[in-house]
Amino acid sequence: MRRRRIYEGKGKVLFEGPEPGTVVQYFKDDATAFNNKKTGTITGKGVLNNRISEFIMSRLNDIGVPTHFMRRLNMREQLVREVEILPIEVVVRNVAAGSFAKRFGLEEGGRLPRSIIEYYYKSDELDDPLITEEHITAMGWAATQDLDEVMQMSLRVNDFLQGLFIGCGLTLVDFKLEFGRLWEDEEMRLVLADEISPDSCRLWDVESGERMDKDRFRRDMGGVEEAYQEVARRLGVLPEAGPLDLKGPKTVQ
Ligand SMILES: Nc1ncnc2c1ncn2[C@@H]1O[C@H](COP(=O)(O)OP(=O)(O)OP(=O)(O)O)[C@@H](O)[C@H]1O
Ligand SMILES: [Mg+2]
């Protein structure tokens, strides 16, 4: 049966789900960086990110952080609740890296005195500019109360993820979250949406300091596939099938 394609993004495709209010997220192997200026393929990434995000979202649901995740459907797809995505990317930082290190002229790798939350406006045309809470509330992207909730949830996610990853020998340097509005009989709830994976987190091996995330792709470091596989392996979610099977079908319906 052909499903209606709702949206094709850089890393995923969204299809209409089987029941109203649901969508299917299909995880692609496509990789982009620097807002589409660099594109490529990371073989098996979709399969691994589907598993990794499933695992993390499920554990977050377990500890009472509401998420869009319902269930994994197959190697590359998961069923999630359809939400109205807030046009904001929430970035939580524990260690200086990437644009943060650049902006403040810091060397990458310094632990921040406390976790820092940043907001970016989701706009490819504008290159996702850094914004403040004032911008968000004044532009009506989220109310002060909603933003408080987003901040509290983000810090809980950070605490949980830091513990989870340190148990796997990985330092959670920073990560990006997206939230959405879920309407249930006139009531609105904010839930965590999108994905949590090595595409959206910086993860450094505790022992060697090696990068185990999309920075390997951004910076042409090689060993990209292996890094994603290693993260999945350490989380205990590496699919049984061998690396060759990760290739899977390249085409989507
Ligand atoms: N539960 C959900 N309901 C509706 N939309 C969602 C949900 N979870 C994630 N999305 C949106 O689906 C898209 C996922 O695709 P992908 O991550 O490939 O997008 P992208 O290219 O990064 O684009 P964007 O700039 O919009 O994030 C994103 O736009 C994301 O905001
Ligand atoms: Mg995205």
Automatic annotation (TrEMBL):
GO MF: ATP binding; phosphoribosylaminoimidazolesuccinocarboxamide synthase activity
Chain ranges passing through the membrane: none
Keywords from the named record: ATP-binding, Ligase, Nucleotide-binding, Purine biosynthesis
GO annotations of cellular component type: cytosol
The reaction(s) this protein catalyses: 5-amino-1-(5-phospho-D-ribosyl)imidazole-4-carboxylate + L-aspartate + ATP = (2S)-2-[5-amino-1-(5-phospho-beta-D-ribosyl)imidazole-4-carboxamido]succinate + ADP + phosphate + 2 H(+)
Domain SAICAR synthetase/ADE2 N-terminal: 6-234
InterPro entries per record: SAICAR_synt/ADE2_N, SAICAR_synt_PurC, SAICAR_synth, SAICAR_synthetase, SAICAR_synthetase_CS
Biological process according to GO: 'de novo' IMP biosynthetic process; cobalamin biosynthetic process
PROSITE patterns: SAICAR_SYNTHETASE_1, SAICAR_SYNTHETASE_2
Top EC group: ligase
Domain of life: Bacteria
CDD domains: SAICAR_synt_PurC
EC id: 6.3.2.6
Pathway field: Purine metabolism; IMP biosynthesis via de novo pathway; 5-amino-1-(5-phospho-D-ribosyl)imidazole-4-carboxamide from 5-amino-1-(5-phospho-D-ribosyl)imidazole-4-carboxylate: step 1/2
Family stated for the protein in its record: Belongs to the SAICAR synthetase family.
Protein known as: Phosphoribosylaminoimidazole-succinocarboxamide synthase
